[in-house]
Each structure stands twice: as structure tokens, then as C-alpha cells.
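User: Okay, second chain of the day. Same drill as before: sequence in, C-alpha cells out.
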Amino acid sequence: MRFSEVINDTSAVIVEKTTLKASPVLFDARQLPSSLAGNCFCLDIQSKNTNKLRDRNRIRIDHVLRVQMLHRIRPNDQVATQREALEDEERIIDAMVKLTTMPEARVLYRLSLRALVASREFLVTTIEFSVEDTWTMGREVS
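Assistant: Same drill. C-alpha cells below.
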């Protein structure tokens, strides 16, 4: 499974299961671009060889997939906003661990982190997954 396939499949799940839109820029709770209006997400992927296979023609890859969600906090309804963010988080986790578009991969939920930005205007949620799959060396990459 290619890196781009992991990102594309995850993005499709989030768009289907939530009202979040894909952000044109990457963000986190410490560096929030002023161009973001809220209720969006971005994806980050880091990958490594697990060294679990002894076959020289195949390697086992562990992708650490991070989903960053940004929810604008409504000043007069902060608890409801937080509840909506938690519901989006649960929908994403549920859909990712049941993902059928990546049958050759094993998707595991690892952790969630939630943080208010300094202005307390936004809630940033990070959901982290482990996506393991086997690569056959010498395959064509388009």
C-alpha cells in the first residue's frame, strides 16, 4: 500500500463520516495558521520498517498516521462544541478500525490528544493510528 493510498483512504473516511473539510495547510495546536476558519482536518504520516520479515523481497512497514482535527469553539456553547468534537473523534476511530478499503493493512487505534489553542477559540484533536502492511520490493510506483 502506497503512502498516498493511506492518506487518500483516510481522508475519504473522514469526509464521509464527519462534517469536517480537508485543510489546505498542515496545523497543530502550537502553530495554527490564521487562514483556518475551523471544522477541518489534516493528515500526517510517518513510516518505518518494522524488521519483522526475514524475506529480502518483502518488508513490513508501520505507518504512524496522525489525524489533526480543528473545531471552532462556540463561545456561548462550549460544552456542545466539545461534545461534537468528541463525537467526530469517535466516528473517525470507529470507521478507521473497520476500514475495508485497505484489506491488506492492519489499522490500530493508538491514542487521542486534545488541546485548546492559547486563544481558547479552537480545539485541536490529534488521533493517532498504526497502519501496518507488507511491501513487496521492486513493485512499480506510479
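The radius of gyration is 17 Å.

User: Thanks, on to the next one.
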